[in-house]
Amino acid sequence: MSNDSKNPNDDPGTNRVDLLGSLLKNVSRSFYLTLRVLPGGLREPVGLAYLLARAADTVADTELIAPERRLELLLGLRARVNGSYSAIAQEIASELSAQQSNPHERVLLQSLDPALDLLDACNAHDRFHIRHVVTTLTEGMELDLRTFPNETSGHIGALKTGEELERYTYLVAGCVGDFWTRMTMAHEPALREWDPDEMSACGIRFGKALQYTNVLRDVPKDLRIGRCYFPKELLAKHGLVPNDLLDPKNATRARLALADLIRIALTHFDEARRYLLSIPPSCTRLRLACLWPILIGLPTLEKLGQNADWLDPKKPSKITRAQVQRTLLLSLPAVGSNRLLNCWIEKQLNAVKTIFEN
Questions:
Q1: Which CATH number fits domain 148-358: 3.40.50.1370, 2.40.70.10, 3.40.630.10, 1.10.600.10?
Q2: What is the tens place of the pLDDT at every residue in 160-189?
Q3: Which one of 121, 166, 252, 300 has the fewest beta carbons within 10 angstroms of its own beta carbon?
């Protein structure tokens, strides 16, 4: 099969609107808010990158398939994304789609072939950066599969050092900040004066801030599938081992370790603020797309800090849908003002810092 053998626009089995519309909405969870508000030229390449990464994540997370086979399929998909033509999409659909309890994830895996055709049809710039970010994201998934035991083993694996955690947050989220920067500079004329390396580094920190939030919020859930992202060296510093985090009664003992990681997250959020305020006020849609994750992430950390039972899976640290909707509404009149946004984010940063100063 050659690169020119299929044109997705001529294939009746491929529906661009379905892939980048209804399917994307059904599988992208809260990220769809960001995708929906992006400027028109960015929605398709960013949405396509998300679909491919989401499909790879579904492959990596299908517990009913042995981790070794998941890794084999993941590596095959990575190779196909990078232009090595094979029947891997059909293999994945055949082996894994029936294993999905979520019907939208089933459709996602069955739609890999047309999604890959769309990737092949992208312009050279977009195709290069989509391939790069999906490759990097799958390296993070590979790290999970190689580092942690089978989800049903009853054992816990853990990262060893803070450097490993930083590397992990780059692989699964920080790299998206680099991708986002390169894509927005190419598609948004107002950003073409940005220093690409400086802003890419800032964007990587932005992505890490969001992933630290996810990691810390999801500790109880991840532990129960054998994954501890709290580095062993950090836990040892506070007289703990990974298995201690399984007991909700240890929430107070482990709070100092939590505080250490939240402080790191806040330094990344400070860079996320700088990234946001570097976007010209005239780029309203792009500003909103970057503002909303900050305004949802920081209150999530605040909620986590206020949760005395943060290790209890029955008491998750999540902000409510009503809080999210209120935040989105309040952001609209503020989005064009650097002063208002800076004050808003500073207030949220201080609210989290204050919890851990007491």
A1: 1.10.600.10
A2: 999 999 999 999 999 999 999 999 999 999
A3: 252
